[in-house]
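User: Here's a chain of 320 residues. Predict its fold as tokens.
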Amino acid sequence: MAACGRNIAVERKEDGKNEDWSDEDLRPDHICEFPTWTGELYSTQKDVLIIREDGGKNDKRVQIFLKKPDFHCRSYFMLCQIVTKLRDGKIAAGTGACKVRGREFQFLSCAHNLQMFSARKRTLVPYQSLKVYRARQGIDCYLNRGKVDPNEIITHPNYDGNPACGFDIGMFSVVKAISEKANVNTHGTLNSVKNDVIRHYANPQTLRKGMSVEIAGYPIKKGGHPYKLEGKIEATTKTALGGYLIWYDVEGTSFNPGSSIMVTDKNFVKSATNNPAIKKVIIGVHAGQDDVVGLNYGTLITKPIHDWIKKNEKPRCISL
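Assistant: Prediction complete.
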């Protein structure tokens, strides 16, 4: 069952106008981020980065090539691109992370990639035509493609539609794989993918300014190709609803909501696991940018949120 934001009733009805569509043409002038209730919707004509004073010269994003040794690991193969068609005909794109349990798949993203806020109806409504592409690398290559059942969307019960509320986090499962287009030329040998990441909760007091973090996902203007960014933690702040935001500097470059925030600080990683193969710990979900202070922010996965995720992970997902 889809969960709603606090004090807001969920309405599932939608006219289905945008059910029949194809996302194969991800033209730069035809793609944008998922809108938020605050009206935050980045330009559909230009990437935020290239309209800044430096003209895009300081873009620090690094393209991910899944078959290369440095990227042939779970922290990149877990990436998925989430897309839907908006009422104006443009395609909204976001990022999620896939957790694999044998033949079972569960996806984690920000809530505003999964539900839209209706100002007139004062409700949060699950998107009816979401599609997800697991381990996408370009338009034509991915492990699996699936259509998301709106009934399988779950957002945190304290999510109120505001990406900065501290609870902009959601989950969904997919019950059927539509197709597979990955091959050895793009993804390499799948059985050799290394496990280098875990998901864990973080106590805000244990996250220090200057700790290294990495964000990986699908920038909207990159045609379905994954990229990564590295940066430093700046602060954590408590929200009015009791959640926490994590603030970080990733060279001033905008990135894709829904991307996992992974701490790469060695001491923090050791505090979360004694497995020497693990190099990264997922402790949050990227939600947006604050251009006033020049920082990115995301929902911190605290112990209560981590417990909520574990409680709602479901056994039925993609059948391979």
